[in-house]
Every structure is written in C-alpha cells, then in structure tokens.
Amino acid sequence: MLEPELPLPQQVEAVIFASEEAATLSLVRQVTGVELTAGDLEAIISGLNAAYAAAGLTFRIHRIAGGYRFLTEPGFGELLKRLLAPRIRRKLSQPVLEVLSVIAYRQPVTKGEIQQLRGTSPDYAVDRLLERGLITVCGRADSPGRALQYGTTTEFLDLFSLHSLRDLPRLREIREILREHDEQEYLSGGGNLPFPDVEHNDE
Length: 203
Prior knowledge:
By secondary structure, the chain is of the alpha+beta class. The chain has helices spanning 8-18, 25-32, 38-54, 77-91, 94-106, 111-118, 123-132, 154-159, 171-180, 183-188, and strands at 59-64, 67-72, 109-110, 135-140, 148-152.
C-alpha cells in the first residue's frame, strides 16, 4: 500500500530538523525531489515559523552558514548557555579558542602573524582547528616563503550560529561584555568566543 504524500512544508521541516549541518536549498531539493526556488523555500520557512510562534514554541528556523537550522529563541539563551558551555570548553581549550578568534577576525592570516599577535606558537591550536574543520588553508601569503594562510569554514559559522562573517561581534560589543564579566566567568557562562584585542576589518 502506497504511503500518502507528505505535505511539502512538513518535508522541509523534517529535512532541516534531521540534517547534521545547515540544510541548504540544494539539499532540500535533493531530498524532497521538488525543484524549489530560493523564494519558495523562504515562503515555506516563513509559514513554519509563523506556526511555531502561534503555538508558543521555543524555536524557529534561521538562515545560517548558507543554509537553515532550528535555533531556540533568544529569550532562552542564558538557560542554554549553562547547558552548552561545558561541552564547548571540553572540545576547544582557551588557547585554541584564542587562535580561532584571531583567524576569524584577521583572515586570511598566517601562523607567523598569529604568533606575532599572541606571542606563542599557534601550531598545536591550528592543527586542532584543522582537525575539527573549523578552519582551512585558503591560500599563500604574497611574501618570501609563501606561508600558508588560514581562514574559517562554514562549520565555524554553523558552530557559532553565524549567517556570515559580517555577523561577528564588533570589538565595542566584546569590550562591553568583558567589562561586565571577568573573562573566565564569561566563558563558564557559555560565551561563544573570547576574542582578543585585534582590529576588525569593518571598523
């Protein structure tokens, strides 16, 4: 007996919910078999989000890292920081997070440039970040030796719920946070990144 065809919005919802990474338009097309346009998908997601809001649910579908993911509403942020912070700390140590933040703001950047900013060799941290897929080699410096340059990946955007690098916090926002909380206290509360005092390209 043939199963009845599922409504398209429910198919889209299921794909986004089950995807381990942000679900792209091409992924939704592939899995559903429907040639959706970007506008079609946006309209379906808007309808789903309206239904979630009407039902008082704690999550919505958001566009991040070039695709779509379920994220909880901002009002539950402090609650979930307490849940997620220990897991993030186990995976990424403080020195590794510091190197990641330098790369995020200064990319493309070489190991030598990172060492100049931090004063210590970034070799271990860079290796760990490459293993995690949070950074990648994105070119070579136009200087003697042609050192490798590093930049962040879509996995980085996904991990920190950023749609693009333009969504990185401005330095003034970070300074306000650090004025209110000691750095270690901020991390234990689940802050995303302990960004060092480096120049942001947009400032």
